[in-house]
Amino acid sequence: MSTAASASNMSEGHLAVIGSFVGRLFDAYGPTVLLASGTVILTLSLMMTSLASRYYEFILAQGILFGIGFGLMFYPSMSATATHFRKYRATAMGVAVAGSSAGGVVFPILLQRLFDEVGFGWAVRISAFVCLACGIVSTLTVSSRLPKRKPGPWIDVVSLQDANFMLFTLGSGICCLGIFIPFFYIVQYGQDNGLSQALSFDLLSVMNAGSVIGRILPALMADYIGRYNLLVPFTAISGIFCLALWMHAHSLAALMCYAVFFGFFSGAFFALQSACIAQISQIEKIGIRMGMAYSLVSFLILVEKWYGANGVYQPGHIRHHTIVPILQDLAGSVHYRVPMLDNPAGSHGACLRPLS
Hints:
The chain crosses the membrane at residues 58-78, 90-110, 122-142, 163-186, 198-217, 229-247, 253-274, 286-303. This is Major facilitator superfamily (MFS) profile domain-containing protein. By secondary structure, the chain is mostly helical. The protein has one domain: Up-down Bundle (Growth Hormone, Chain: A), CATH 1.20.1250. The chain has helices spanning 3-29, 32-51, 55-83, 89-141, 157-160, 163-176, 181-192, 197-225, 227-244, 252-279, 286-312, 323-341. Helix 1 (3-29) packs antiparallel against helix 11, helix 6 runs parallel beside helix 11 and helix 8 runs antiparallel to helix 9 (227-244). The longest helix is centred in the first third of the chain and has 53 residues, at 89-141. It is globular, with a radius of gyration of 20 Å.
């Protein structure tokens, strides 16, 4: 396994471990201190990465510091957004989570250009300064409307006994075993089909651009026709597009078409996760529940990365392996149906109609 892959997997591991802990701290103290800490740690991680030259240095900088810093920024940002909205919660959270896809459009192009012009070290340092500026803005502007209170338990046992929450988390986890595979391997697949490195990275940027739109428009629709009502079909369709397009895409035009459509429909999956968790949770438990859910999901992303690297993607054999993300997306969408059928009109249930 390469150094980059090892660091990335360890980063995902730390993101999984700290989720419930960060959620508990958010519920008790709010987002400001967590975001400030995350900004400092994330920036330090990238600065240290720019200086790293040995295996253990990359592991410490990217594998440990980056995962912790990212977790301290991601979980509070999503949880805080959920506390300010009720009727238009999906729209607000879709706009918030669209920022990650916007970064997915900008950073591949930015880094590819900077690597050629200023080298690896300064390319990573420039990206660190960009992250620092964005982190300062988020620290100063993100807030929670909930009052500070005494810290609760590190693990909310009551949430583990909530069938709706656990089934939703299970469905999300199953989907995450497959839905990231195109994002991880679209660049390599493009190169294996004769595209240049630049065009292959453009495929990833186009996929993320489609995801930006897919995280905003479906979220806006979800507040009117139901969040689970959109999450289920959009998740299933994203898997179907792997079968309909990716398995048969070998030209630039076909790959670009696939990147746009998969990015759009999978974007709804990412946008509606937090809104759906908030919809089946009491507002004072939003932080810890999001942390617990994303901890499981992050752990399963680790499994997906290992599985994708060792079995799903083999150059020239993608036709035989795209069925994996398809089945996982479809299986996950089936699990989403269960919370929809329980308590269809309750204030904290997974309503089939938007909350007023």
